[in-house]
Amino acid sequence: MPGSFKTEAVVLRSIRYAEADRVLHLYSREHGRLNAIAKGSRRPRSRFGGRLEPFFRLDLVLYRGRGELATVTAAHTVDAHPHLRGSGLALGAAARACDAMLRLLDSTEPNPAAYNLLCRYLALLDGDEPPSDRSPAIPEIDGAAASELRPDDRSHRSLATALAFRLKLALAAGFSPELASCARCGEADEVSGFSPDAGGVVCAACERGGFELSREAHSFMVEAIGSPLAATPAGSPRALRQVERAVTETLEHHAHVHLRAAA
Ligand SMILES: [Zn+2]
To answer: Which of 165, 174, 170, 173 is nearest to 32 (CA)?
Structure first.
């Protein structure tokens, strides 16, 4: 039905269109994935100013006519995330998060868990969230050699948080891996592998077709899902690589989407 409606949304992608317009790919709180056109927004004195850029969180008034695209009639900034743009690391992480939203959530059904997760992650990347009191030290578990630890602790923390975001996003999208017991036979005590095909952790007897998952990687996934993003646990590089493979391949198998590398 044609008409105006209000929604809060994050700009996932902003594409130049025609002479002076932009097409926005949005993830909204009330209407899930939306595409909208902002006419004249690239003119120097546009009433939209610079706020139709990726990662802006906006209060929008949109008009839906007969076409596929809604039209932006008003846009007010809820959060511009200005600090995020000053850091290459944060910018890259925000871009990958928005890309994951685009690939994984294409429905116009609202998904408040996914929307709130994206908002919290962008705020964290922008530095609004108080730092976690969890130790940033990287534990040396499962025989990870000291030489394997990356010298850049910050990018390592950033990878752990990016993977926590992906795990929570998979959960919000309905594709969370089974972590409590073997995804094939239900054995709970001795899981040692991960099977993207089975969609979760597997025991030694069921590991065929899967790959090794260390105890550390398994605990990281369980803890990351259960903790706020800002309190994401640390993990050795080896464990984080296994976690990334587990999440990425689960989504390939079950959601048929391929996500870009997490960092
Ligand atoms: Zn099993």
So the answer is: 173
Residues with CB under 5 A from ligand 1 (ion): 182, 184-185, 187, 203, 206
Give me ligand 1 centre to Cα 184, in Å: 5
- In the reported structure, the alpha carbon of residue 98 is separated from the centroid of ligand 1 by a whole-number distance in angstroms of 35
Task: Determine how many CB atoms are found less than 10 A away from the CB of residue 162.
Answer: 24
Integer-rounded Cα Rg, in Å, for the chain is 20
Q: Is the entire prediction scored with pTM above 0.85?
A: yes
pLDDT tens for each residue of 154-192: 788 899 999 999 999 999 999 999 999 999 999 888 899
Distance 153 CA to ligand 1 centre (A): 36
Question: pLDDT tens digits, residue range 195-228?
Answer: 999 999 999 999 888 999 999 999 999 999 999 9
Reduce the DSSP state of residue 7 to 3 states and report it. Answer: strand
